[in-house]
Amino acid sequence: MKLAIVYVSGPYTKGGKATASEMRENYEIATNHSLALWQIGFGVMNPMGNTHWDLIYKEAGIPHGVSYSQLILFDLRVISRLADCVFMIPNWESSKGAKIEHNLAELEQKPIFYSMAEAQAFIKEWERSTS
Prior knowledge:
alpha/beta
């Protein structure tokens, strides 16, 4: 059976303008969704987990020198080359980056989920078709 890889998309940094508190809340929301996706059978790519150091540096008031462009370009490559589907966490529409990620997933005709129920239905079918 092939593991379905889902990319988790949603608000995190507000284009670098989010407070540390807002980033922490967004990180926790994404992490909770990621765990739920792992639990129903996906392999999960959560970009907020991949760049959690951004929050740690922000809380410490230390600039890290990594640009938003670098991060979004990496994320788009992951969606294009690795992800089988994309999960949009609540309030994704408020994020410039999530909108870009959503547009790429649509352009590449990748399944996009807006709820756990949709993701669960997909993974059941995926498991049937790849076993």
